[in-house]
Amino acid sequence: MRQSLVLKQQLQESIESEIAQRAQQHRAKMDILRNRDIHLKANGGAVPPKPLLLLAHGDSWFDYPLNGNTLAPHTTDIIAQLENMGTVRPVILNLAHYGDSSSDAMALPKQQRLIAYLQDATNWVNGKPDAILFSGGGNDIAGDKFCIFLDDASTGISNGLDPLRFPKLLQMVEASYLDLFAFRDKYAPGVPIFSHCYDFAIPSGVHPVCAGPWLLPSLTYSGWTTAQGTAIVHQALAALATTLRALAAVPANNFILVETQGALATADWANELHPYPAGFKKIAARFVSALGQRFPGHI
Description:
Layout: H1 2-42, E1 53-58, E2 66-67, E3 70-71, H2 78-82, E4 91-94, H3 102-105, H4 108-118, E5 131-135, H5 138-141, H6 165-187, E6 193-196, H7 216-221, H8 226-248, E7 255-258, H9 277-294
Parallel strand pairs: 1-4, 1-5, 5-6, 6-7
Antiparallel strand pairs: 2-3
Helix pairs in contact: 6-8
GO molecular function: hydrolase activity, acting on ester bonds
């Protein structure tokens, strides 16, 4: 018990240290940006378009420390790709951490962390980010708890997803997003939120040595074949996208859903939940397009 608590504490300290390091690197980029503009103005030079200043939060699609299934010298996720894309490359403060469900991301400690970084004036030019990027909902479905939302195949009463339990899961995801909107309205009013709807993960059982698998074990436990499981996962993620589209359809939410389902080919998937870097780049390209529509000339 004591060893478990120590390891948990060490993990938390490691996460906080990593995020603090990212924040330090972000502030260094902000210093360079400010000094560049001051220098150009003082010398009569034309100031180039301001890059978008973005705050990212959420799960492993924004914080994936692997290259496929092996350790990488740097992360290869959507944010890592996005930082190197666009005519004007965005500057992103990334507070995401792999493994977080949407409710984890909006739990009290994470909200307090968000407040601290939002209210630190050194992180922004005009007092707040231009947009917030959020990745949430995938880990609510995937993982060892996935079996909770599956009917047993032997009952023959459904096609896999329990018609009573699974909608409750979607309601929890919806609640997390609604709380994110309320949080934004209080601490960063007027800032749009961009999110995505993942893509159709394949329950193959493939996983890195450090984590997973996240889908196949629950499907096998519940008696579903791999082919049936693929259809069930497709149905679950399609339902998640429908939930998020409904939120994006409400203007007051100031929420843009980046349509990402169908972006990846089978060969793009490194494991059950994550693509290879080239796959993440395909998803990031859709963020570039969505951000460009909202902020023309700034990405």
